[in-house]
Amino acid sequence: MTTSPPPPFDPRDPLGLDDLLGDEDRAVRETVRRWAQTRVAPNIAQWYESGELPEVRELARELGSIGALGMQLEGYGCAGASAVQYGLACLELEAADSGIRSLVSVQGSLAMYAVHRFGSEEQKQQWLPSMASGETIGCFGLTEPDHGSDPAGMRTRAKRDGSDWILTGRKMWITNGSVAGVAVVWARTEEGIRGFVVPTGSPGFSAPEIKHKWSLRASVTSELVLDDVRLPEDAVLPGVVGLRGPLSCLSHARYGIVWGSMGAARSCFEAALEYSTTREQFGRPIGGFQLTQAKLADMAVELHKGILLAHHLGSRMDAGRLRPEQISFGKLNNVREAIEICRTARTILGANGISLEYPVMRHATNLESVLTYEGTAEMHQLVLGKALTGLDAFR
């Protein structure tokens, strides 16, 4: 039993969660944090205000150079990082902006993961190295204008024409769509739902960008239009038939959100904590008032509980023991709490909380999208409800 005194209390790590990390974990975190603070932080308010991500291709190449794209995958130029390391990267990226984490998540956890897990060796060799380097950007086409939470109702269809496939349909709210070089598109066939690797230069494929968003403004969001897109036989992902394919991809993306949402929450908490020590009212810093301290304490508790939950889920994923229901547990809790932390931070900052000089309102509006994409809060509640009771309430 040691008799040495505990380390000093760290307001930014009150539970000492850094003790859970190894040297390699910290190195990954610092690499991504340094890139985000250097490359994104000075520009993000302008990008958000203008509603565009003007340097997306350059950013993708830079992210590839630090190993952040498809970083959990093995081979083909991918980093082969642990689940915890990928989570730490997501946290740091979303502390900069949810749109940047979405770029990485869609590239790696959706498009690259689909090819890596379900693709042929030829498909992997053709696409994964350039996607890992950021030279090729990918997107993932599942959600449709009339089918979000119920992907089984998709209307996009693929039919055989000799040895070719003909794809027809529309996908909606697709991150990276208009800048992607390749799209993984899920479509209904006579055999069941199949995934297709679609070069975006294919005749009949278009990806008009969606404008006038008030959330995820520093992110490229598009519609995918497939107007009799002809693809060769080998465009289909051979490794899966049915919804198990896209849903397994979504599980990996949701896992990244469990961590990423805590990055947005951390950014808002730190902004509120700093502001509370410098903003004076009634002759003293507002951080000296009981109500403000109560808010800060509650924010810190939920923030670090969420990070602890994310780390636990990451450890289970690394051990091969993480279930989809547990990912739903994490996404439901962490996104919901992150939104509350952002809203509370806004009250501490007062009117300054709505200014882009501070990150709070930007994160709050972004998280409104994070709450509903990759499964709405209601869907994750029902996933957990079914797991708890054994009764299916979806239908």
UniProtKB/TrEMBL annotation:
Residues 242-388 form the Acyl-CoA dehydrogenase/oxidase C-terminal domain. Residues 23-135 form the Acyl-CoA dehydrogenase/oxidase N-terminal domain. Pfam families: Acyl-CoA_dh_1, Acyl-CoA_dh_M, Acyl-CoA_dh_N. One of its GO terms (biological process) is fatty-acyl-CoA biosynthetic process. Residues 139-229 form the Acyl-CoA oxidase/dehydrogenase middle domain. Its cofactor is FAD. It comes from the Bacteria. One of its GO terms (molecular function) is flavin adenine dinucleotide binding. Keywords: FAD, Flavoprotein, Oxidoreductase, Transit peptide. The keyword Oxidoreductase applies. SUPFAM superfamilies: Acyl-CoA dehydrogenase C-terminal domain-like, Acyl-CoA dehydrogenase NM domain-like. InterPro entries: Acyl-CoA_Oxase/DH_mid-dom, Acyl-CoA_Oxase/DH_mid-dom_sf, AcylCo_DH-like_C, AcylCo_DH/oxidase_C, AcylCoA_DH/ox_N, AcylCoA_DH/ox_N_sf, AcylCoA_DH/oxidase_NM_dom_sf, Glutaryl-CoA_DH_mitochondrial. Belongs to the acyl-CoA dehydrogenase family. This is Acyl-CoA dehydrogenase. It comes from Wenjunlia tyrosinilytica.
